[in-house]
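tokens incoming
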């Protein structure tokens, strides 16, 4: 369900209908209402959908992975069998120490924020470990926690319990309370670096990493492409296309679940970040993975000296 001024948009795997608020089976918070009159007949491809295809490299499989992941975030139901954080990371990373960014990850996060009740936190200013009041601004109606543009030293492990369990909320001068799992927000992280975790199955089962194709860069932005700003320069008609498109992503998720992405550079980028780029280059030139275990033997001392 998505809440608009003129009614509730009910999305099922195969249908979309606008129902009256009196027919909605429950209560909502006023802040959950999107200030737009939705019109299902005014339905064309949105600029945002065009944007998503470009940052998916115009590859249909990657586009399906990205859009079903968005649909997962928009769908408010929490399933104990599907406890994933969505992590948006660049396909091409700069290991010189400078984070390039600018590929559109934050635009995707903003789109989620426009469609469903979300809490947005600046990853650069993140001080979670020593901040017991980190979750104090999260309310029961928030459906997504967005941590945008996290630092290279961001520790994903800190959020394990939030992804799979309840959330402890502590406000200043108030008694602490817990938000049950079914009402905790889902987690969306954007990063210009590989997001570090504890490693192993415990880490991998809590994340889905989606690589963003570098269609946009610092010298070619979405403004250069569309000749105006996404969201802030839209008229009501384009907003309508956007909201229906986002509802379709949720519909695709209801039909097929998350379409898991095929990794592009994830493994190599993680190795570079956990070791060093020069080591990976050395390994590419000097280490051979043989098909027959006896076909290649390297002297460890020689290799170490090299």
């Amino acid at each position: 369900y998505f809440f608009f001024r003129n009614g509730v948009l009910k999305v099922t795997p195969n249908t979309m209908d606008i129902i009256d608020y009196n027919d909605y089976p429950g209560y909502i918070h006023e802040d959950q209402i999107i200030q737009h009159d939705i019109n299902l007949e005014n339905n064309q491809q949105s600029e945002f959908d065009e944007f998503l295809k470009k940052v998916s490299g115009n590859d249909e499989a990657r586009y399906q992975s990205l859009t079903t992941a968005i649909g997962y975030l928009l769908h408010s139901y929490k399933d104990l069998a599907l406890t994933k954080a969505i992590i948006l990371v660049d396909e091409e990373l700069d290991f010189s120490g400078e984070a390039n960014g600018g590929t559109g990850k934050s635009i995707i996060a903003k789109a989620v924020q426009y469609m469903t009740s979300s809490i947005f936190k600046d990853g650069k200013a993140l001080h979670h470990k020593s901040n017991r009041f980190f979750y104090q601004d999260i309310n029961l109606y928030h459906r997504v926690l967005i941590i945008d543009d996290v630092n290279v030293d961001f520790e994903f492990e800190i959020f394990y319990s939030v992804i799979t369990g309840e959330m402890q909320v502590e406000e200043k001068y108030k008694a602490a309370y817990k938000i049950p799992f079914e009402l905790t927000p889902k987690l969306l992280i954007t990063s210009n670096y590989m997001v570090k975790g504890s490693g192993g199955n415990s880490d991998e089962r809590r994340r889905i990493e989606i690589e963003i194709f570098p269609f946009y860069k610092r010298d070619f932005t979405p403004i250069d492409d569309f000749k105006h700003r996404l969201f802030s320069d839209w008229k009501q008609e384009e907003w309508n296309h956007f909201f229906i498109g986002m509802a379709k992503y949720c519909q695709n998720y209801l039909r097929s679940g998350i379409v898991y992405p095929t990794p592009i550079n994830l493994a190599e980028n993680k190795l570079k970040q956990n070791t060093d780029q020069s080591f990976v280059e050395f390994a590419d030139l000097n280490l051979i993975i043989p098909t027959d275990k006896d076909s290649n033997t390297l002297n460890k001392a020689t290799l170490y000296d090299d």
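note: Strands lie at 2-4, 7-11, 16-19, 85-90, 118-122, 144-150, 167-169, 177-179, 186-191, 207-212.
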